[in-house]
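Complex record, two chains
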Amino acid sequence: MKLAELQRLMAADVMRPLTTADDLISPQNQASLYVKPNDTLTSAERLQIYNRGYWYRVLDSLREDFPGLRVLLGETAFTNLSEAYLADCPSTSFTLVNLGSKLEDWLRLNPQWAGRHADLTLDMVRLEWAHIEAFDRAALKEIGPEDLAEFSSTLKIQLQPHVRLLDLQYPVDELRTGAEIRAGARATGRRLTKAPLFVAVHRNDGYVYYRRLEPAEFNILQSLQRGGRLSTVLTRALHNQPVPADLQQWFAAWAQLGWLCHAKPPRKRRPAEP
Amino acid sequence: MPANRFNGYTDLGVGIGLRIPHYQHIFANKPVVDWFEIISENFMVDGGRPLEVLDQILERYRVVQHGVSMYFGSAERLNRDHLRRLKALVKRTNTPWLTDHLCWGSVDGRYTHDLLPMPYTFEAARVTARKIREARDFLEVPIAVENVSSYAEFHVSQMTEWEFLNEVVERADCGILLDVNNIYVSSRNHSFNPYEYLNSVPPERVAQIHVAGHSKYEKYILDTHDHPVITPVWKLYDHAIRRCGNTATLLEWDDRIPSFERVHAEARKAEKFRSADVELIPG
């Protein structure tokens, strides 16, 4: 048996949904074809050590990354969702940090796992994924409050990569930062009511925070994410609406929080092939 | 030999793994530690607290990088994005050597995040050695591969684990991160003599040694890194030191992590086996 063939066989068995040793010796999964038994363990039992290890590892990782989702759904439903998600979307990254990167898209395609309030569940998934991204995305050289005084119209600015913007249907930020999460208990006594809101998930001094935004503030920050000259950013965001009265204060606050940085120059296009 | 071309001709002493629960203690008390080993993947990020912490550690301590997902033994090609990020980290830490495991763990771009055992075949040795060479050429730093604990053996194997290790490191011309706890765990799971393994390891290629604790179950032993090192493993360590000399040594404690002082004290037990006049066992 060639190396690639053996590894494909074993990986399929290791990543098979948590199973018993009996399943691993079924006609479809013949562990004994490639794994030797020993005096105390059958081939399937030896393989099962890896199968269990795989699932404990990936399930633990999702549990750690999505504590709010766990609270919303409850432990059993969360575990069922996690197993179904990981069966469809196994890790394709060298780091477990990216394990939940496809959860939002997968949940939209598979709403049967989202519980009774799918919108609420999706909001929490988006918030928790933004939290992960905000934690270790790049922070480029800041444009600080002192730089704003000398703001020139030609200066190209953008939002720091670690600032993530979310338009949400439910105030899941409150639940995520609340005592229910810290206690790890299900928020049975609490109902979140629909109340659309805008949130920035950002990093400050190594820690991740949530900041509520005004709708117009959110639009301008979204435009800032694309980067450009200030005039371009505002034109794109305001669509001929009057400039908000709080604009200057907002910029001062964003600069204070370290959210603004110099826009990256656009990538040079390769010359067309002759 | 303690300082050799596989560990950048360094002689680092006894280190411990840099772990989050110890950050506060380290920054507050600035303990004397010979060196820290970091898990490379935890710091292969674009920014944030992991890199801030690392930079603070680097101001005061020597750091050596240890990886868990290069998967030299996987049949597929090396992940270029992984390599690029790893190289950026190598430049940041100035690690004198870099280690990862003699194992596989990904297939067709899907990652198990486990250290899966190799089939001990000549084909696997060729593939693995080629990838180690590619990685070393790209990263421009000495590489040492670690023997893993294993719970399964394959029908296709053509040699013992130690013969396979030698085959790979000779072909790749790389170093060995000799994990004596892993030798012990595998020896119990696969009924071989751990001293036969140790005696077959070329001492001149050993760049570093790992010691760790494990968990014993009814029918097998699991490499859990959540206990102190047991006496039989210390005896293997003693034997390894007498074969290889006072090689850089690291205690791994990765789960149910106790206080910094407890982990450091456990690591420093290694010092009683190390002395300036350690009597080497001939060849």
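Note: The mean pLDDT of chain A is 89.
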